[in-house]
Design a protein that fits this description.
heterodimer, A: about 260 residues, alpha/beta, Rossmann fold, six-stranded mixed β-sheet, four-stranded antiparallel β-sheet, globular, B: about 290 residues, mainly alpha, MetI-like fold, 2 domains, two-stranded antiparallel sheet, 2 strands, about 0% strand, binds adenosine-5'-triphosphate, binds magnesium ion
Chain lengths: ~260, ~290
């Protein structure tokens, strides 16, 4: 199993605050290479805040501060001087698809372009490859010049996944990606994620406990800014988790 | 019983709605009336003096006859130089204020200053222009001094409209862009500005109209009553439409009645043409990007 895979992210005593008000307190966990790491927890438990630290978007949120340490492939994120280089290695998919206001093609070509790739053939190649891997190519190959926001919600979300893949990331952060996506498309994206696992590490924040069960190798349960439990996903659903609160949440018995 | 009461109330409400709608409609129409009257008068009285020669020839007979070419040419020059000065500065300032400036006391003071600058009467700008550009910077009375005075005067319009349209670009675009590893400047240049261009152009349209029409700020800084030759550089004086209109309407004896109306008509027409070009450009951009 993945349990002996090397550590990709190691989080120690991470505390996050907005305007000095704690949103996450003292989280410790490890995320391993090539696993899907699920994070579940009710609204406001700090899942999105946690993801923000992993690609250092906190630097762009001026009321956000954090202590503790997060190491990425063994390098402390705080000592990472070039945040842009870090973010290019980390793809992010937001809850509501944020298609940049440009064509389908340009959405996927954006990241290669800002990396400095100018060769048209090379960019064409990246666009086709990423759209194919995001299971969108067949639906859009005839209208790559159409505006991205003309696609359906589910298609747009696959477009943002293609865009994230165009970064050639080694870490993919998904924040409740299926919130605006129909069940059929959700399943297609889930299949894509299972395939992607062989190439990169995925952190999957989700509101759907069953989705977490289907996809995640290991899971963390967040509650009011605390990480209540981390373990193999199966343990969450076979009743072998230690904490009563985790069991209640997974079984849907939560106030 | 209660049913009847409700119906009566409904009917009363419906009547009230109708009256409210009529009242607002009347106010809207009363806004249109002056515009129609002004345009109607201008066209009716000014049309007789219009001809190709009117646009392309110099004034003759002590400005009581002939064309208005030097004034037309001068106004175009003044507007272009003013835009060249104010648009880059205004847009850059707006980008700084909306994208980079920290939200602190200093920024708020700057914002307040910009709003106040917009409220300064144009005659004060004129005197400032004389002091700053004509005398201190020693440009003399020239197109350059007149244009810079107008640029300072219209700067707040450009800054405010640009800033507003930048602020209107959804934060989610910026976040998505930054999280892909784009730098702040790449985000602004490739995502924020293209989305704000329409609003920025609106500000520039307003600026063009004001720049072409203002008289006081250029009267003391660069516009001349009458010049027998065209300006050769930005350091020369020039005639201008707004001042020429003032002159032929009030300062010169024995002017045929249709002449000032003709000048006014061309001035208004000129502003409309410039606006249409900007609007056309805006529509073109919008069509291209399909917002
Ligand atoms: N930009 C911000 N400024 C101030 N407080 C914030 C900000 N973002 C989040 N918070 C606060 O931090 C806490 C955690 O929020 P976070 O968005 O991380 O929760 P979440 O688990 O992602 O919730 P959801 O499932 O609803 O997305 C909340 O109490 C929230 O109000
Ligand atoms: Mg969230």
């Amino acid at each position: 199993m993945v349990s002996h895979a090397p550590v990709h992210l190691s989080v120690e005593d991470l505390t996050i605050a907005y305007d000095g008000k704690t949103a996450i307190s003292g989280i410790n966990l490890e995320i391993r290479k090539n696993e899907i790491f699920g994070i579940i927890g009710p609204a406001g438990s700090g899942k999105t805040s946690f993801l923000r630290i992993l690609n250092r978007m906190d630097a762009n949120v001026n009321n956000m501060s954090w202590t503790g340490s997060v190491s990425y492939n063994g390098t402390d994120l705080r000592t990472w001087r070039n945040l842009y280089a870090l973010r290019r290695k980390v793809g992010v998919v937001f809850p509501l698809p944020v298609g940049l206001p440009m064509s389908i093609y340009e959405n996927v070509a954006f990241s290669p372009r800002i990396r400095g790739i100018k060769n048209k053939a090379e960019i064409d190649d990246i666009v086709e490859r990423c759209l194919t891997r995001a299971a969108l190519w067949d639906e859009v190959k005839d209208r790559l010049d159409a505006l991205g926001s003309l696609l359906s919600g589910g298609q747009q979300q696959r477009l943002t996944i293609a865009r994230a893949l165009s970064q050639e990331p080694d870490l993919l952060l998904l924040d409740e990606f299926s919130i605006a996506v129909d069940p059929v498309t959700t399943m297609r994206i889930e299949d894509v994620l299972k395939e992607l696992k062989s190439e990169l590490t995925i952190v999957l924040v989700t509101n759907l406990v069953q989705q977490c069960r289907r996809l995640a190798d290991r899971t963390a349960f967040f509650l009011s800014g605390e990480c209540v439990e981390v373990g193999d996903t199966e343990d969450f659903f076979t009743g072998t988790v230690k904490d009563q609160r985790t069991r209640d949440y997974v079984e849907g018995r939560f106030g | 019983m209660s049913m009847f009461a409700a119906t009566a109330l409904n009917r009363k409400n419906a009547t009230k709605q109708a009256w409210i709608s009529r009242a607002f409609g009347a106010m809207t129409i009363s806004l249109v009336i002056p515009v129609v009257l002004v345009m109607g008068t201008l066209i009716h009285r000014g049309a007789p003096s219009l001809s190709w020669a009117f646009l392309t020839e110099d004034p003759t007979g002590g400005m009581t006859a002939g064309g208005i070419f030097p004034a037309l040419f001068g106004t175009v020059c003044i507007v272009i130089v003013a835009l060249l000065a104010s648009v880059p500065v205004g847009v850059a300032a707006a980008i700084y204020l909306s994208e980079y400036a920290p939200d602190n006391v200093f920024t708020r003071i700057i914002n307040l200053a910009i709003i106040n600058l917009a409220g300064v009467p144009s005659i004060v700008h004129a005197l400032f222009g004389v002091g700053a550009f004509v005398l201190f910077m020693d440009f003399g009375t020239s197109i350059l001094a007149a244009s810079l005075t107008l640029a300072v005067m219209t700067l707040p319009v450009v800054i405010v409209s640009t800033r507003e349209s930048l602020v209107a670009v959804p934060q989610a675009y910026r976040d998505a862009c930054l999280s892909m590893g784009a730098t702040k400047w790449q985000t602004i240049w490739r995502v924020v500005l293209p989305n704000a261009i329409s609003g920025i152009l609106t500000g520039i349209i307003l600026e063009v109209s004001r720049t072409a029409g203002e008289t006081a700020p250029i009267m003391f800084t660069g516009a001349a009553f009458f010049l027998p030759f065209l300006p050769q550089s930005v350091y020369d004086q020039t005639m201008a439409m707004s001042l020429h209109l003032f002159v032929v309407a009030t300062q010169v004896p024995n002017v045929p009645e249709s002449l000032p109306y003709g000048v006014a008509l061309i001035l208004v027409g000129m502003v409309l043409v410039m606006n249409s070009v900007s609007i056309g450009f805006r529509v073109y951009l919008r069509g291209k990007r399909k917002w």
